[in-house]
Write a structure and sequence with these properties.
Blueprint (H helix, E strand, L loop, with lengths): L20 H8 L3 H9 L6 H14 L14 E6 L7 H17 L3 E6 L5 H8 L5 E4 L8 H8 L3 E4 L9 E5 L2 H13 L4 E6 L10 H16 L3 E6 L4 H12 L6 E4 L5 H10 L9 E6 L1 H5 L6 E4 L2 H16 L7 E3 L2 E3 L10
Parallel strand pairs: 1-2, 1-3, 3-4, 4-5, 5-11, 6-7, 6-8, 8-9, 9-10
Antiparallel strand pairs: 10-12
Helix pairs in contact: 1-2, 1-3, 3-6, 4-12, 5-6, 7-8, 9-10
């Protein structure tokens, strides 16, 4: 039998009328244990049920007990999901900038990694180990959102589209970057381009900015009469080889857009192995961090992800929320930077 006022069941502003897990369960039409599972992540709950519980938590104003509201730990938690879609250059720049911004504001960073769900995030918020939380790679129906809403702690979602009311968010507006990339290649006379997309990520982890870039790129290419061939391309050498064999024999492809910084070095190496020169035989545009771009044999034309700006802004928003200031959705626009990897189409 579920205790309706368990250890996690205490809203801010206790007293008569305080909202309990049972209140949330009754309003959402689910059991109290289901609400608890949504908050703690101890069991998998369907997306529809999770959304209903999340909305009810927000509507009723339910909060868990999280220690004295006047006591600060001087720590910002950064929650990073461990999954296969890694971008080491982007993450390194993000963490370096976030750590610097946090240090200037008198905070330390606590890295929270948990590939089994939300238990790590639940542990940090329920034990009051951090004053605010920054969640990386947030997506629609993200199971970490109910944990944050119930914790009552300020939070910033990095990658979310800003639809989670009550939580600040910062994301990338990649539509202009996709448009600029297509325009650059079309102006060079390329009429058939392969877009090597990131390989599939687990559900709920693919941020909307990937779709925004692809849509901006494809629409602009279509307007310019450019054919686009899209293929997922994992960074493993054998996957890159198969992908290149596919796109380079599918038609008159003269340019590649590599939309995964981890795949960029193996793509360039595979092109060399095939005797194809960049950019004399094939042009290449990368979507990557500045760190990865600077470490290639030639400086690639690139949509540069502003990871440093994202890291500093996420910390700024978290501290702003912690101090009680408003912090609405923020967007950062990547820039297209010309390089040495593109040239006029050869055919």
């Amino acid at each position: 039998m579920t205790n309706s006022r368990d250890a996690a069941d205490e809203p801010s502003g206790a007293g008569r009328g305080a909202v309990t897990i049972t209140d949330v369960a009754n309003a959402a039409g689910v059991s109290a244990s289901t609400v608890s599972y949504v908050i703690t992540g101890k069991r998998t709950i369907s997306a529809a049920t999770r959304r209903r519980v999340e909305e009810t938590i927000r509507t009723l104003g339910y909060r868990r007990r999280a220690g004295s509201p006047t006591t600060r730990a001087g720590v910002l938690a950064v929650a990073v999901p461990l999954h296969g879609d890694r971008h080491p250059g982007v993450e390194m720049e993000f963490f370096a900038a976030a750590a610097g911004a946090a240090r200037e504001l008198g905070f330390d960073l606590l890295l929270v990694t948990d590939d089994e769900g939300t238990s790590g995030l639940h542990r940090v918020t329920s034990a009051a180990l951090a004053d605010a939380v920054i969640v990386l790679d947030a997506g629609d129906d993200d199971p970490r959102v109910p944990v944050l809403l119930a914790s009552g702690r300020p939070a910033v979602l990095v990658g979310a589209p800003g639809r989670h009311h009550g939580l600040a968010s910062v994301t990338l507006d990649c539509t202009p970057a996709g448009q600029a990339c297509a325009t650059h290649l079309a102006d060079l006379g390329h009429r058939s381009i392969a877009h090597l997309e990131p390989s599939a990520a687990p559900p709920g982890r693919r941020a909307g900015y990937l779709t925004d870039f692809a849509e901006g790129f494809r629409i602009t290419a279509a307007r310019r009469g450019v054919r686009v061939v899209s293929r997922p391309c994992a960074p493993a050498a054998e996957d890159v080889g198969r992908c290149l064999d596919d796109v380079l024999t599918a038609g008159d492809v003269t340019a590649l857009v590599v939309h995964d910084e981890a795949a960029l070095p193996p793509v360039l190496a595979a092109l060399r192995d095939r005797g194809l020169r960049v950019p004399a035989d094939v042009s290449v545009v990368a979507v990557c961090s500045d760190t990865v771009a600077r470490h290639q044999p030639i400086r690639p034309a690139a949509v540069v992800i502003p990871a440093r700006e994202l890291g500093a802004l996420a910390v700024e928003l978290a501290v702003r929320r912690l101090d009680g200031s408003a912090a609405g959705p923020e967007a950062v626009t990547p820039s297209f930077v010309p390089g040495e990897s593109t040239a006029a189409a050869v055919r």
